[in-house]
Write a structure and sequence with these properties.
Number of helices: 7
Shape: globular
Structural class: mainly alpha
Strand content: under 5%
Distance between the termini: 44 Å
Order of helices and strands: HHHHHHH
Helix content: over 70%
Number of strands: 0
Largest sheet: none
Length: 184
């Protein structure tokens, strides 16, 4: 078992070291801006805008879906971090302030859960499959960029980000399927 953990740690350290070699100020500034798209503050503000829109359209099922997705995005990463207790990377300089534990990435989890939920909710109002796909693809681009930024900035290992993606996306999909099944 220790061999597997060593393999994962070597993989993660290798990625962080490679990314640290391509750091330049213009890219760092862009990555700092992109990482904010996965912050609690930005996700809450976006959720409020979506919630107001759903309320004005009297979409109660959408409001429930949004509330469940947001609640899980806030709760699950904390619970998982307490379970795994993985410290943040120290092998490279952290280019932004980040505190707490590392696994899974809360930014990656929150981005996957919320941006996919936003895309699913937008897709319900659209008739054509191409339009729905557009919103999902747009969400996926933002999610991947946020996750990449966390590793580029040295505050998360790549496996933290991948776990955040997997868990956040799974949460969003489960909530979407559950609310649809209930007749939402």
């Amino acid at each position: 078992m220790q061999e597997m953990w060593d393999l994962i740690q070597n993989f993660d350290d290798g990625i962080l070291l490679r990314l640290s070699q391509i750091r330049i100020e213009p890219i760092t500034q862009v990555m700092t801006d992109i990482t904010a798209l996965g912050s609690f503050s930005v996700l809450i503000l976006m959720a409020i805008v979506v919630a107001i829109t759903l309320y004005l359209h009297r979409d109660r099922a959408g409001l429930v879906q949004l509330a469940l997705a947001g609640s899980g995005a806030a709760l699950w990463p904390s619970l998982l971090k307490a379970l795994f207790l993985r410290e943040r990377p120290t092998i490279v300089e952290q280019l932004v302030d980040a505190s707490g534990l590392s696994f899974p990435s809360g930014h990656s989890f929150g981005s996957a859960a919320m941006y996919l939920t936003f895309a699913f909710l937008a897709g319900r109002a659209l008739k054509r499959a191409e339009q729905r796909k557009f919103f999902v693809i747009l969400a996926l681009i933002v999610i991947v960029l946020v996750g990449f930024s966390r590793t580029y900035l040295g505050v998360h290992y790549a496996t933290d980000v991948l776990a955040g993606f997997a868990c956040g996306a799974t949460w969003a999909i489960l909530i979407d399927r559950w609310t649809r099944r209930l007749g939402a």
